[in-house]
Amino acid sequence: MTVALQIPPIAPTGMVKTFGPFGPMYQVGKTLRPVDDDDWMVAIRIVETGEETEYRYSHMANDPEAR
What we know:
- The protein is mainly beta.
- It has one helix spanning 57-62, and strands at 16-18, 25-35, 39-46, 52-56.
- It has a 4-stranded antiparallel β-sheet with strand order 1-2-3-4.
- Strand 1 and strand 2 (25-35) form a beta hairpin.
- The longest helix has 6 residues, at 57-62.
- The radius of gyration is 13 Å and the shape is elongated.
């Protein structure tokens, strides 16, 4: 039996990004766990509402930094 070691990507914890070019701002938290398609879930906090949720690392990596 072979066990694959999955090393989590380093999330830019504390960075504020937006969902796409015009979406609401969110603050990036820590990397949480692997999911399908070799992706990871990252903790985020929506700046406007304070809501905490999870978001795919691949989506977060493509979102722009908030200005």
